[in-house]
Amino acid sequence: MKQFILALCLLPFAGVAQKKTDSSYANWYYQDRMKLYGQLNTRPADILFLGNSITERGEWHELLPGRKVANRGIGGDNTFGVLARLDGIIQQKPEKIFLLIGINDVGRGLPTEMSLNNYRRILERLTTALPKTKIVVQSVLPLNEEKLPYAYLKGKAHMVKAINEGIVKLAEDFHLTYLNLHELFAGENGELKAEYTKDGIHLLPAAYVDWVNWLKMKKQL
């Protein structure tokens, strides 16, 4: 009986300790995009953009005419999802990869250390398998709290800052080019400029024109 009572007393604490982190990524949309990309990954690419919806929404092939461009963005993707689909990226042997991932990790409240561990594994895999590919690491974009309709992202600017600080360090560790997109997209208050977004997280189509021009100014395109 004493053992039974002790077990009951410990149940709430065990529940807290065993709280699971939502690291899922392979929803129906992810799987559909993977089916499409699976048919395209045999095509070589000069430039490959890798990330989530912010990457996927870019009309990169239109913005970079005459270049072999691959858009490998998947809406809703996180660092777990990118890590799981690197085989297809490596298969294309791009000359340059622009990597932007992490805001959906922040949105889910994943521990920053977990996201950065995934990020390190992503960079380890890419640099090992593609030693001749230039990998450009880009910061997670800022948010605009006033325009955000998504409660799960509100009040998480500090997490964006933390993950970006970690990404800077990883870029240094791997001797990769790091681009701070806040130079272009953040206003004086540090938030995503209102003229660039409708919902406080995603970019308006015209913002991608400025993004490409900025990359060219930075001599990355």
From TrEMBL:
What is the superkingdom listed in this entry's lineage? Answer: Bacteria
User: Where in this chain does the record put each SGNH hydrolase-type esterase domain?
Assistant: 49-208
Gene3D superfamilies referenced in this protein's UniProt entry, alphabetically? SGNH hydrolase
Which Pfam family is one of those matched by this entry?
Lipase_GDSL_2
- Name of this chain's protein: Lipase
What is the species listed in this Swiss-Prot or TrEMBL entry? Chitinophaga chungangae
Lineage of the species this protein comes from: Bacteria, Pseudomonadati, Bacteroidota, Chitinophagia, Chitinophagales
